[in-house]
Amino acid sequence: MKTKLYTHLGHDGPWLLPKTDEEYDERISFIKTTKPEVERAARLCLIAEVTAPLPSTLQKTLAAWQKARAAWEKADPARQKAYAALQKAYAALQKARAAWQKADAAWQKADAAWLVAINSPEGVAFHAKVCGCSWSPEHPDTLEGLAR
């Protein structure tokens, strides 16, 4: 990414900004089409490309900024791809959660019906036939009737 230095390119940002040609063009277009007409000339007059050599400290800091920006730009596509995958996974999670909640409600209803059925007279009679222990809905502790 090739940048140039511009003065006062942002309305409330630093007075000196490294920007690409595209960013510069976008800002100029924004000023010409969006800012109040009475401010446009003054704003455009303040913007200038800086071609003078930078003092040593500024040059070193700019080099570090450019290196960090290049790393950011290199990492950004992977971040965007991962974010898109996250959004897709989140949508799948929402869909799965809705299906699970519907299934859970049906299971809760079926479980309640099952408990009613096994504690009904028919269920109790079936228990007595297949098990023979002292359990009943009124006396559910099966150990109570066992010899100790």
Layout of strands and helices, then pairs:
Elements: E1 4-7, E2 16-19, H1 21-34, H2 37-46, E3 48-50, H3 56-118, H4 121-130
Antiparallel strand pairs: 1-2, 1-3
Helix pairs in contact: 1-2
Explain what you see:
α1 packs antiparallel against α2. Helix content is 66%, strand content 7%. The protein is built from four helices and three strands. It has helices spanning 21-34, 37-46, 56-118, 121-130; strands spanning 4-7, 16-19, 48-50. With 148 residues, the protein is mainly alpha-helical. The mean pLDDT is 92. It has a domain at 4-98. The protein has a three-stranded antiparallel β-sheet.
Q: Percent of residues in beta strands?
A: 5-15%
Number of helices: 4
Helix content: 55-70%
Overall form: rod-shaped
Give the SSE order as H and E letters.
EEHHEHH
Mind summarizing the main beta sheet?
3 strands, antiparallel
Low-confidence blocks of residues: none
For the biggest β-sheet, the strand order reads 2-1-3
Mean pLDDT: 92
Structural class: mainly alpha
Terminal Cα span: 85 Å
Quick one: how many beta strands?
Answer: 3
Oligomer: single chain
Query: Rounded to an integer, what's the Rg over CA atoms?
Result: 37 Å
